[in-house]
Design brief:
The chain has 434 residues and is mainly α. The chain folds into 2 domains: 1-44; 60-429, no CATH class. Helix content is 79%, strand content 0%. The chain has helices at residues 3-20, 25-40, 46-55, 62-74, 79-90, 96-112, 115-132, 137-147, 150-153, 158-167, 172-178, 180-201, 211-236, 242-260, 266-299, 302-313, 317-334, 337-354, 359-373, 381-390, 394-417, 420-429. α7 packs antiparallel against α8, α8 runs antiparallel to α20 (381-390) and α11 (172-178) crosses α22. The termini are far apart.
Length: 434
């Protein structure tokens, strides 16, 4: 074997061994990078240099701001208002509370940008509410965790910013606009699945639709929804950058949470900021470590080799797109979202582009694949949170989630093979050149 092959085996082999041994992901990335650099005879002084280079980015400053915005709004008293808004819109249907759960996740996800926050916040309210109304507890949990993935697609999602930075040259504004229709498609697919199961189990309907009540609930929720509008319109319209919009959104979220909804006092604000710091420490160390890991991948020509290998399996774009989805789904089962985006994007994006996938479309595919991974063992963070919130055994929740996995796969395949689902809105708004 050539020295390059040996170093590649050291890098990827040690990484996956540590993943399966359940090492913390940052340690897995960092240690495998050090072992690879040692095998290549590189000076380890370059490791901290690459780490600093990885986070030395103005656009990445949007990530901590968006996370802070999500935490402030998520703890600032908006959950009840968004649930009431969703209830006024879809609560009249068979299985109304399941529909409310899905639509509320679409609204809340656009504010928090986090599937975990969505599950913890909305799940703690809606799961007990659904159980009290006669819904099965495992069904209620399955609806909650699967619908939370909508928030990964609906802007402002900090994972979109990470992807845009890693992919290089991809517009954050285009990614933001691209997420709306796929997020809505996912919501519709989950609602169809929920409706079928609700009819089968004869789950109850809610109150009849009332236009007056719907308008009233919009009025109560408008302050929360404006946060998303400020960010998206500002970025797409070129008023300010993603980072500037995120900073403005933090100030807006603080004012709304403290003075309008009054869900937070100043003591609560400090606790929220402490929570942000905990999350940011994890995200930023991952970004830094992954930059060094990615540098090793580049030096070893792994992206080019991976592209050659994947395209050698078949020349059919359909087969290659399905293979890309399978790879991302498998990675999602053993890794968290941020490291998948950071590590897999440089490897798989060139392959995706070679079969005609636009980088924006591929970004949406990647995020949804990673979202499905958050619901699957053994590293399904959202699955664990949902089980804990509902106090249900994880294996029973997984069984109840099986029909919803099918709904999500259908949505994923449509997004993969129908480019306009992701690209139509960015082109319409001018965020992406037609």
């Amino acid at each position: 074997m050539t020295p390059e092959t040996i170093s590649t085996i050291v890098l990827l082999g040690s990484f996956f061994v540590m993943i399966f041994l359940r090492f913390p992901i940052a340690y897995s990335v960092g240690i495998s990078t050090i072992l690879c650099m040692a095998s290549m005879g590189q000076n380890l002084v370059t490791l901290p240099q690459q780490m600093v280079k990885g986070v030395w980015s103005f656009s990445l400053m949007a990530v901590p701001f968006f996370i802070t915005m999500g935490v402030l709004m998520g703890t600032g008293g908006i959950s009840d208002k968004l649930i009431a808004l969703a209830n006024s819109l879809v609560g009249w249907m068979r299985g109304g509370l399941a529909m409310v759960n899905i639509v509320a996740s679409y609204f809340f996800g656009g504010i928090s940008g986090s599937a975990s926050a969505d599950t913890a916040s909305l799940g703690s309210i809606l799961i007990p509410m659904m159980v009290d109304e006669g819904y099965d507890a495992d069904f209620s949990t399955a609806v909650t965790i699967t619908s939370s993935c909508e928030g990964l697609l609906v802007p402002p999602s900090h994972n979109m910013v990470i992807y845009a930075t890693t992919a290089g040259g991809v517009s954050v504004g285009a990614l933001f606009m691209a997420g709306y229709l796929p997020g809505a498609l996912l919501a519709i697919a989950l609602m169809v699945g929920s409706y079928i199961l609700s009819v089968k189990h004869n789950y109850p309907k809610g109150n009849p639709f009332s236009l007056v009540n719907f308008i009233k609930q919009i009025g109560k929720s408008i302050w929360a929804l404006l946060a998303v509008l400020i960010v998206v319109v500002g970025v797409v319209g070129g008023v300010f950058t993603a980072t500037e919009s995120a900073a403005i959104a933090v100030i807006y979220s603080l004012l709304v949470s403290v003075f309008v909804y009054k869900g937070l006092d100043w003591k609560g604000v400090w606790k929220s900021l402490e929570q942000c710091i905990d999350t940011l420490a994890i995200v930023l160390i991952l970004i830094a470590m992954s930059a060094a890991f990615g540098n090793c991948l580049t030096l070893l020509h792994v992206p080019a080799k991976a592209a050659t290998f994947i395209t050698s399996i078949s020349s059919s774009p359909v087969v290659i797109i399905i293979l890309l989805n399978v790879i991302l789904l498998l990675l999602g089962m053993i890794m968290d979202m941020a490291p998948i985006i950071l590590i897999a994007t440089p490897i798989l994006l060139p392959v995706a582009q070679s079969v005609g996938l636009h980088p924006v479309q591929f970004g949406i595919m990647m995020v949804l694949n990673c979202g499905i991974g958050l619901l699957t063992p053994p590293v399904g963070a959202v699955l664990f949170i949902g089980s804990a919130v509902a106090k249900r055994p994880m294996e029973k929740v997984v069984k109840a989630t099986l029909p919803f996995y099918l709904c999500m796969i259908v949505a994923l395949l449509l997004i993969s093979f129908v480019p306009s689902i992701s690209l139509w809105l960015p082109k319409l708004t001018g965020a992406l050149a037609a």
